[in-house]
Amino acid sequence: VDMLRLILVEPDTSKLGWGVVRFVSLLQCTTTQADKEDPRVLHVTAYAEPGSIRGSDVRIPQWTGKLVFDDHIRCLAARQYLDKGRAELRALKLRNIAAILNMPSSFD
After folding, report:
1. How far apart are CA 89 and CA 78, in angstroms?
2. With CB atoms counted within 10 Å of each terminal CB, which end of the chain scores lower, N or C?
3. DSSP string of 2-36?
4. Strand 61-68 and strand 41-47: pairing?
5. Residue 46, phi then psi, degrees to nearest 5
6. What is the pLDDT of residue 51?
7. What is the C-alpha separation between 53 and 71, in angstroms, rounded?
8. Cα-flanking dihedrals φ and ψ of residue 37, to 5°?
């Protein structure tokens, strides 16, 4: 669990309770979109880190995934968790910038 990153872990088939990390990306560089056809499906796109491509502001997808959940409630909970995490991360960064500039922080 990391506040700054999206970490995708696949359960290990040989060791119960263990997992294998398959992908790591900055949370600020991810987007989520619900599938219009199937409410159990969540499409996640992770973009390359801003500034990682010289002189370019174009968002280039680094990874796209179709996550299928057991039911629509788990899918919605996952999407809300990611969206809330992104919002909290943005607020934290804005508070840090405000503190550096000696400004009041009202970004909650």
Report:
1. 16
2. N
3. -SSEEEEEEEPSSSTT-EEEEEEEEGGGEEEEE-S
4. antiparallel
5. -110, 125
6. 67
7. 38
8. -85, -45
41-76 pLDDT, tens digit each: 999 999 988 766 565 667 889 999 999 999 999 999
Classify the C-alpha dihedral 18-12-8-85 as positive or negative.
Answer: negative
pLDDT above 70 (res 108): no
Taking CA atoms, 75 is separated from 15, 65, 72, 107, in Å, by: 26, 13, 5, 28
> Rounded to an integer, what distance in angstroms lies between the CA atom of residue 67 and that of residue 9?
12
Distance (Å, rounded) from C-alpha 44 to C-alpha 108?
25
Residues 81, 59: Cα–Cα separation, whole Å: 23
Phi, psi of 3 (to 5 degrees): -70, -25
Terminal-residue alpha carbon distance, the chain:
22
Average pLDDT over residues 19-28: 93
Distance CA 44, CA 58 (A): 18
Q: Which residues pair with 24 in a beta bridge?
A: 7
Give CA 77 to chain center in angstroms: 13
